């Protein structure tokens, strides 16, 4: 299984231009959810709404799940009229939400190098209040040093133009600014299998620098690090990396992000999120606690 593109960005196409990817944001998901509730309460099917807007049912479905470009203001007004939504506050709120959802994010300047479907992850990560991640192959992208990140990109994107590698590295380092965000605050909790450290990425100075970066990160109040040593034996994370993203508003449900060579998956159903949350909690219980993890990392630094 491929390591997370949230860290690796290892699916950029070779040769030719990449199609502009769609970026899913929390506002898009919220807007879609509200429109779906209004549609269902009004008794309309997706097909009926699609016919009214003269578009495909798949577009309506993607709007309702936040996976399509947000509707234009006139489309929102048409939908609210169709659904019989007379409440002024509801109308104003949805129109404002659609306007905000259409605003470009800081990451838009990197759309030329987004791997397929990674734009959705970027949008969600940028607005997350909490990110919990397990990995059995690599250090998470938010914690990678420039030297380590470059080694990962050059290895996984073998044959790619150096200009593309430089752009992806720039994007990765720009993402790391979220660690210093104060409003809303951002919390990162990463569990790494010992395998992450036993397969060197780069020469000794690169590895040593990465370990030192993790030791520095472990001291930050909003970062929790744990290592899952080989001595713990088999564990529930053997099937690969995954991330849990939580958001500032309680009404915005958590999202699970999983990547494989076959593509990226966004799990949003409550039973899926609950299962992966339980899985993460089991890994927390199996791994070294943060203090023991610091000792482990110091031992690696000496090696």
Helix content percent band: 40-55%
Biggest sheet layout: 6 strands, mixed
CATH architecture of the largest domain: 2-Layer Sandwich
User: What proportion strand?
Assistant: 5-15%
Instruction: Outline the low-pLDDT stretches.
Output: 1-6, 8-21
* CATH fold call of the largest domain: Endonuclease, Chain A
Rounded average pLDDT: 88
- The strands making up the biggest β-sheet line up spatially as 3-2-1-4-5-6
Morphology call: elongated
In total, how many beta strands?
6
The first-to-last residue Cα distance is 29 Å
Describe the protein's architecture and organization.
- It is a single chain.
- The protein has helices at 5-8, 26-42, 46-53, 57-64, 73-83, 88-101, 118-127, 146-156, 162-175, 195-198, 204-218, 270-286, 290-302, and strands spanning 130-135, 187-193, 223-228, 242-246, 255-260, 263-267.
- By secondary structure, it is α/β, with parallel strands linked by helices.
- It is built from 13 helices and six strands.
- The protein folds into two domains: 5-10 and 105-302, Endonuclease, Chain A; 26-101, 434 Repressor (Amino-terminal Domain) (Orthogonal Bundle).
- Helix 2 (26-42) runs antiparallel to helix 6.
Q: Briefly, what is this?
A:
GO terms for molecular function: DNA binding. It is built from 13 helices and six strands.
């Amino acid at each position: 299984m491929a390591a997370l593109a949230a860290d690796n960005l290892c699916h950029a196409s070779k040769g030719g231009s990449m199609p502009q990817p769609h970026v899913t944001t929390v506002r898009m998901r919220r807007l879609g959810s509200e429109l779906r509730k209004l549609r269902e309460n009004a008794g309309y099917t997706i097909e009926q709404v699609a016919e009214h807007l003269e578009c495909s049912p798949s577009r309506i479905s993607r709007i309702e799940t936040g996976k399509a470009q947000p509707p234009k203001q006139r489309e929102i007004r048409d939908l609210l009229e169709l659904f019989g939504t007379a409440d002024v506050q509801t109308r104003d709120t949805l129109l404002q939400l659609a306007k905000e959802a259409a605003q470009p994010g800081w990451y838009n300047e990197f759309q030329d190098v987004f791997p397929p479907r990674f734009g959705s992850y970027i949008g969600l990560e940028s607005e997350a209040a909490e990110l919990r991640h397990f990995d059995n192959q690599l250090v998470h992208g938010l914690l990678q040093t420039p030297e380590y990140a470059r080694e990962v990109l050059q290895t996984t994107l073998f044959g790619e133009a150096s200009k593309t590698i430089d752009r992806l590295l720039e994007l990765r380092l720009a993402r790391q600014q979220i660690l210093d965000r104060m409003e809303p605050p951002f919390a990162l909790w990463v569990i790494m299998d010992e395998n992450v450290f036993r397969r060197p990425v780069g020469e000794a100075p690169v590895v040593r620098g990465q370990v030192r970066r993790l030791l520095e990160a472990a001291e930050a109040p909003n970062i929790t690090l744990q290592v899952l040593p080989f001595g713990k034996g088999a564990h529930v994370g053997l099937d690969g990396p995954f991330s849990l993203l939580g958001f500032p508003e309680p009404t915005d449900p958590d999202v699970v992000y999983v990547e494989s060579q076959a593509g990226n998956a966004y799990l949003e159903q409550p039973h899926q999120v609950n299962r992966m949350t339980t899985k993460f909690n089991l890994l927390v219980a199996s791994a070294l606690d943060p203090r023991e993890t610091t000792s482990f990392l110091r031992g690696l630094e000496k090696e």
